Every structure is written in structure tokens, then in C-alpha cells.
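Hi R.,

Here's the chain you asked about this morning:
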Amino acid sequence: MHTVAVLALEQVIPFDLSTPLEVFARVRLPDGRRPYQVRVCGPSAQIPAAGFEITAPWGLEGLADADTVIVPGRAEGAPRPGEEVLEAMRAAAARGTRIASICVGAFDLAMTGLLDGLAATTHWVAAPELAQRFPAVEVRPDVLYVDNGQLLTSAGASAGLDLCLHMIRRDFGSAVAADAARLAVTPLEREGGQAQFIVHHQPPVPQGSALEPVLAWVEDHLGEELTLGLMARHSGMSERTFMRRFREQTGTTPVQWLLRARVRRAQFLLENTDHSIDRIADQAGFGSPTAFRERFKRVAGTTPHSYRAAFRGKEHT
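And here is the predicted structure, written out as C-alpha cells:
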């Protein structure tokens, strides 16, 4: 029997808590046996959440003999976990226990120091803060989950489900994981390296910068052929000066900025119109459908067709 301990802390997100409880508790082996025992553990018997309380039948000692510990996400503004909680996670890791976080549960896991020197992910909205607060962690905001072997992290709530299925597949194989996915009414195929569906915000430009007018002009002319020379001339600078100031103020190159601007335009059109892929490629300035597919996938991590299907819930041509 494989014991899964789900750690309930103050202001835990109910969905993040319930996902591993539901998924692991329903797993069946081909002979009908249930291979997982799931327990809710916490520093106290009653854990306050948003508007209600969660009962934790097991204390932190429930982590001591667990095979897997799950750290769910918690609401914004939740208090820092007590040192006894962090020490319980460190002790579990020292015993070889597998520890996995869901969504912003990565912050609580990172507080233990266990993620230092490792790659990790969290919800893309929270990824910059995770990277800032824990510089020793290699934050990867563009994947669904990261598996370091003993320590695993996932992105948003649905990616937490992907991670649970991934761990089941590791433990008992694809057939058992596929059966668990069917019970959860979710596909098994989403791999950890698949990108989160992110609307890629551009690096900020300081207010009043000389770049503001030219970038606004670029946004209005994305469907046209735009070159570095054209952007520099429109800014009234030489190409060398334009490149230097662009890097200084945005941290990226004009070419990369332009690519992300075009991907953002394509994302909007894929989500909000029925335009064909060929038409969107032209409207966003990619030149050809082939170039559009290749560059969109490079930035967004998925194809235009898959992106549209995910956001529109139906097939488009």
C-alpha cells in the first residue's frame, strides 16, 4: 500500500486539496486492489479555509511514514507555514519521501530549501514572484509540471491533476494511469513539458520613454513587414542606438519583442474570431501559415489549432 499524505495548511485552496484526494483514492489495479491510502495531514485538527474549515484527521506525524506528500496551493495572503511544518517536510525528504506541490504550493515547498538548485514551476501568474523570492530555484513558468525525481512541482490547478496522473503512471504504469484519467474525465496525454497557456505580456517600457511612440506604432502595424531598420527610422534613431536603448529599457531585442507582439495578436484572434489559420497568419504579420505555426509553437508551446481548441472548445479550420 502506497500512502499519500496531503498537507492541509491555513487558507488551503479547496480544489488543490481535493484533486489528489479524488484522483489517488479512485485508482484501481487490474486485479481490483486499491494501491493508495490517502490521508489529510495538518498542524491542527481543524484547518481554516475560505469560509469553512477542513478536518485533518492526521497531524504532521502522518508525513513520517508517507510515501508521497502533496503540498496544495494556498490563497493569496496566507500566513507563512510554521517551522514545524517546514521541518516535517524536510524530514520527509531526508527519508526519501516523494514530495509534490500543486500550483502555488511551490512557495511553501521552496521555503524548506529543498528546491534550491532545482527546476520548478508554479502558476504562470505567480512565477515571477517565485523567482524573485527564491533565486536559488530555477523557475520554469512555461511548463505544466517539473519532475526532479523525488521533488515535483506543477503549474495551475488543472496541471496538478496532470501531475497526479504522471505520478500514478510512474508508480503503476500507463494502463493504470489511463484508467485513473478516464475516471477523472481528463486526457492522459498532456505531458509536463507542454506549455501553460500564457498570454505573453511584453516587458514594460518606462513611462515617457522615447520607445513608447514607436512601440505603439508597431502594435498598429503588425500585419505589415516590419524590419529593424524601419522601426529604428520611425524612432528617429540609428539602428545601433535603437538596439542599445531597446535592450536597456526592455531587457530583450526588438526582434523578440516583435515576435511576442505578433503571437499576442494571434492569440487574441484565435480566441475571439473564426478566422482561418491562413488569415490570422497574415493579420499578425507572420508572412505564411508555415512560419506562423512554427513561430507560434516556439513561443506559446503549442500549435495554433490546439490553442484555439483549448480556448474555444470546438474544432476550427
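One quick note: Confidence is low (pLDDT under 50) at residues 313-317.

Cheers,
M.
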